[in-house]
Amino acid sequence: MDVGHFKRARKQAGLTQQRAAAKLRVCQSYLSMVENGQRALPPELARRMVHAYKLSPVSFAPTEARWDPKVAEPEQLAADLSGLGYPGFAYLRKRRSERNPAELLLTALAQDRLEARLFEALPWLVLKYWEMDTRWLVQEAKLHDLQNRLGFVVVLARKAGQRSALPDSRRDAALERLEAKLSRSLLAREELLAGAQVSESERRWLKKHRTKEARDWNVLSNWRPESLRYVA
């Protein structure tokens, strides 16, 4: 974790070390040592800093230093997306999520089965939290062969964002760079999105009728930017 990021965030929040230490429930001398690199930044203190300095959830560190895809229940994925503000699951919202958006994105894409309502939330997640740590995201996607799925979601997000009432040139440029990084490691094999089970005739239909975006990323899917109900 970048300690300098949290130090700058404290100052931008208008907090002295003394006031910040009180909010974080630590002594000022300890916070000073953490900010100066004399003490390691514990994950729990980093979590409190995100809340105290009102930072974006992209500042949360992944729950594990070495990420590994795990089976996730649909209800938990929906709850995490709701906690990050996804409007499609607003009825589930109880408290702010403490999941790193990049980690949640890869977790969803790694599932063997992913409900359509959950997949539809992923382009929104990319648009909303486009400032996520793309270095970590690309690295882990490549390690687990998720770059095609991720690239497809990113291009859907970018094109949906361009169609929205809230254009953002910085965001679009960042997503274009992310697409370029992922395209350099494009997998040649063709795959069904999220491992969906279909018959051979359904597979042939998808291959024939899939969108350009899906074809470019070797994904069998008919999802298209204009079919997404929610954009950032």
The domain count comes to 2
Please report the number of helical segments: 13
In terms of quaternary structure, what is this?
Answer: single chain
Along the chain, the helix and strand elements come as HHHHHHHHHHHEHHE
> In angstroms, what is the radius of gyration?
19 Å
Task: Look at the helices and sheets and give the structural class.
Answer: mainly alpha
| Averaged pLDDT | 90
Number of strands: 2
- Tell me the distance between the termini: 27 Å
For the sheet with most strands, the description reads: 2 strands, parallel
The helix fraction, in percent, is: 40-55%
* Range of strand content: under 5%
Shape: elongated
Identify low-pLDDT runs.
none
Strand order of the largest sheet: 1-2
What key phrases describe this protein's structure?
mainly alpha; 53% helix; 232 residues; two-stranded parallel ribbon; elongated; 434 Repressor (Amino-terminal Domain); 2 domains
Quick summary of this structure?
The protein is mainly alpha-helical and 232 residues long. Helices cover 53% and strands 2% of the residues.
Commentary on this structure:
The chain has helices at 3-12, 17-24, 28-35, 43-52, 74-83, 101-109, 116-119, 121-128, 134-143, 147-163, 169-183, 200-209, 212-216; strands at residues 191-192, 219-220. The protein is mainly α and 232 residues long. The protein folds into two domains: 3-55, 434 Repressor (Amino-terminal Domain) (Orthogonal Bundle); 74-227, no CATH class. Helix 10 packs antiparallel against helix 11. The radius of gyration is 19 Å and the shape is elongated. 35% of the residues are buried.
